[in-house]
């Protein structure tokens, strides 16, 4: 791809005409009520599109369409080789539409265009392609039954999957649900976050063009409390695959209990610690990983490394490097290819993140770098490091979901592990050490779904991702996700 300038991207943005209707039963349709909501760009507050606002009636139509498609069997009972071919085509179409998808994502949520081009869209295509490839390489089981019987253990698709996703990685997180759910023959109804509908609608169109039968992949834009809740309570939905906040995750457990007892998989937030120990061999690399780990996507990442824990001898040098590395981040227009940190997704999110500054100050926090910036416009927040708060301070315990790092000082390795494990969350953690035994010992002790050693945020679809505690119990990605969208069936055949 030729390298484009900010002006090129602005021109391309002006020429876009985003899809704005719901995608149900293989076509774009307005909400039955005719209601619409405006989605804006955090770049400049401008309106991007008036999106169909789905309510219970539209969700019901989408779920019924998905259910009818499931029963018809054109997808759920299709040959594995056919499902594979369709999903490979889907992945190819995503690649072919990289520029448009990246631009939609950048405009809608404010992610830097360099990131949506290099990370969000390619990783989305990769997830779909990887699960496509798995379809004709996974086998079921024959149980060791007596010779007078043949006992088969097969994986059956669940039916209609309700996927409810957040705005921070709209395409990628959708693909972590769609890939394994579609690969195993389910139908999907996707409810994107209200702040990030545009890329999901184009994704649905591409899936349809790739050959997904009508009704197999639907998108119902709208508000969480309305469209999300309707999906969570629908009697024909077999499973909710949710990524978002712990509070809303629990709402889905209630919806399930109050309706049909559907399965609910929860991928929730985090307060992920980076533990840098005295024997860290490369303090510069640790500083780079700590700063990228918190400032990437302006800190709006579920596994953002938002807590830094250090032991005494590495502390001073590391904090100095972090302060200077922080100042080197380029904050700016997300359509500028040089931007590394864009605006936060919305005014609401900006208010939430900046509300932590007075809280941190009242808790004894001081800014190593950054902090409130009276000059900042729009929804920008300066990359910030806070030091001096106690481990039980709110700012050290709660997910800020912005470019705000909190430092906690530990006496020794043992206390560092205790501080790292001292929140309600358990999504990810890292340890930086030059000693192989310490690395293994601490990695075992860290209560997190992913532990990195001497790196941060290294990831691929090949390994599971999810958490402990308030970070939820579901696991996205890897072959294990295929189990999450299937139920085991025993078929016992009498051969006597
Ligand atoms: P959120 O408020 O929980 O929203 C997530 C989704 O749920 C959105 O589609 C939202 O729709 C919908 N929703 C909201 N209220 C609802 C309700 N009462 N009933 C049904 N659905 C409802 O989370 P967010 O603020 O968008 O995202 C940030 C959170 O997601 C953070 O906690 C972050 O850590 C977490 N996250 C976790 C992972 C992971 O893999 N573990 C990945 C990314 C993000 P609306 O947009 O219309 O409100
Ligand atoms: Mg938006």
What features would you highlight for this structure?
496 residues; 17 helices; Aldehyde Dehydrogenase, Chain A, domain 2; binds magnesium ion; five-stranded parallel beta sheet; 40% helix; seven-stranded mixed beta sheet; Aldehyde Dehydrogenase, Chain A, domain 1; alpha/beta; 2 domains; single chain; binds NADP nicotinamide-adenine-dinucleotide phosphate
Counting copies of identical and different chains, the oligomeric state is single chain
> Judging by the overall fold, what is the CATH architecture of the largest domain?
3-Layer(aba) Sandwich
**Helix content, binned percent:** 40-55%
Strand order of the largest sheet: 14-15-16-13-12-17-18
First-to-last CA distance: 65 Å
Ligands, deduplicated: NADP nicotinamide-adenine-dinucleotide phosphate, magnesium ion
Blueprint of the fold:
Blueprint: H1 6-15, E1 22-24, E2 27-29, E3 36-40, E4 47-52, H2 56-72, H3 80-96, H4 98-109, H5 113-134, E5 141-143, E6 149-157, E7 160-164, H6 170-183, E8 187-191, H7 198-210, E9 217-219, H8 224-233, E10 237-243, H9 246-258, E11 263-267, E12 273-276, H10 283-295, E13 307-310, H11 312-327, H12 347-354, H13 356-362, E14 366-369, E15 384-387, H14 394-397, E16 404-409, H15 413-420, E17 428-432, H16 436-445, E18 450-453, E19 465-466, E20 475-476, H17 480-484, E21 486-494
Parallel strand pairs: 7-8, 7-10, 8-9, 10-11, 12-13, 12-17, 13-16, 15-16, 17-18
Antiparallel strand pairs: 1-2, 3-4, 5-6, 6-21, 14-15, 19-20
Helix pairs in contact: 2-8, 3-5, 3-7, 4-5, 4-7, 5-6, 10-11
The structure holds NADP nicotinamide-adenine-dinucleotide phosphate and magnesium ion.
Magnesium ion binds next to strand 3 and helix 4.
């Amino acid at each position: 791809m030729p390298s484009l300038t900010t002006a090129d991207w602005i021109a391309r943005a002006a020429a876009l005409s985003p899809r704005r209707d719901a995608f149900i039963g293989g076509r774009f349709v307005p909400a039955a009520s005719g209601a619409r909501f405006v989605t804006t760009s955090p770049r400049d507050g401008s309106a991007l599109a008036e999106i169909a606002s789905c309510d219970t009636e539209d969700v019901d139509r989408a779920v019924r369409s998905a259910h009818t498609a499931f029963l018809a069997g054109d997808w759920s009972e299709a040959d594995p080789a056919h499902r594979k071919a369709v999903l490979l085509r889907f992945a190819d179409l995503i690649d072919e539409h990289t520029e448009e998808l990246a631009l939609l994502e950048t405009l809608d949520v404010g992610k830097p265009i360099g990131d949506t081009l290099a990370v969000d869209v390619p990783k989305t295509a990769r997830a779909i392609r990887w699960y496509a490839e798995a379809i004709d390489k996974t086998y079921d089981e024959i149980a060791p039954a007596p010779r007078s019987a043949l006992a088969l253990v097969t994986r059956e698709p669940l039916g209609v999957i309700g996927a409810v996703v957040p705005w921070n990685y709209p395409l990628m997180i959708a693909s972590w649900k769609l890939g394994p759910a579609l690969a195993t023959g389910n139908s999907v109804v996707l409810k994107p976050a209200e702040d990030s509908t545009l890329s999901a609608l184009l994704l649905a169109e591409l899936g349809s063009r790739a050959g997904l039968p009508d009704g197999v992949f639907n998108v119902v834009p709208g508000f969480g409390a309305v469209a999300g809740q309707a999906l969570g309570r629908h009697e024909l939905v077999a499973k909710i695959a949710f990524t978002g906040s712990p509070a809303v995750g629990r709402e889905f457990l209630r919806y399930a209990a109050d309706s049909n007892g559907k399965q609910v998989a929860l991928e929730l937030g985090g307060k992920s610690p980076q533990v840098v120990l005295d024997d860290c061999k490369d303090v510069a690399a640790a500083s780079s990983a700590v700063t990228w780990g918190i400032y990437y996507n302006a800190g709006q990442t579920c596994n953002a490394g938002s807590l830094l824990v250090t032991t005494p001898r590495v502390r001073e040098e590391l904090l100095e490097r972090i302060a200077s590395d922080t100042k080197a981040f380029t904050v700016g227009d997300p359509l500028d290819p040089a931007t590394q940190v864009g605006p936060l997704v919305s005014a609401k999110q900006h208010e939430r993140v900046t509300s932590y500054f007075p809280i941190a100050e009242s808790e004894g926090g001081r800014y190593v770098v950054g902090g409130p910036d009276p000059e900042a416009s729009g929804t920008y927040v300066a990359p910030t490091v806070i030091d001096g708060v106690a481990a039980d301070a709110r700012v050290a315990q709660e997910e800020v979901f912005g470019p705000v790092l909190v430092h906690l000082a530990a006496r020794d390795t043992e206390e560092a592990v205790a501080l790292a494990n001292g929140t309600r969350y358990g999504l990810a953690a890292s340890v930086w050490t030059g000693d192989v035994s310490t690395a293994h010992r601490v990695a075992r002790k860290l209560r997190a779904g992913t532990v990195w050693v001497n790196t941060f945020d290294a990831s691929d679809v090949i390994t599971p991702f999810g958490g402990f505690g308030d970070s939820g119990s579901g696991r996205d990605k890897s072959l294990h996700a295929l189990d999450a969208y299937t139920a085991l069936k025993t078929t016992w055949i009498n051969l006597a």
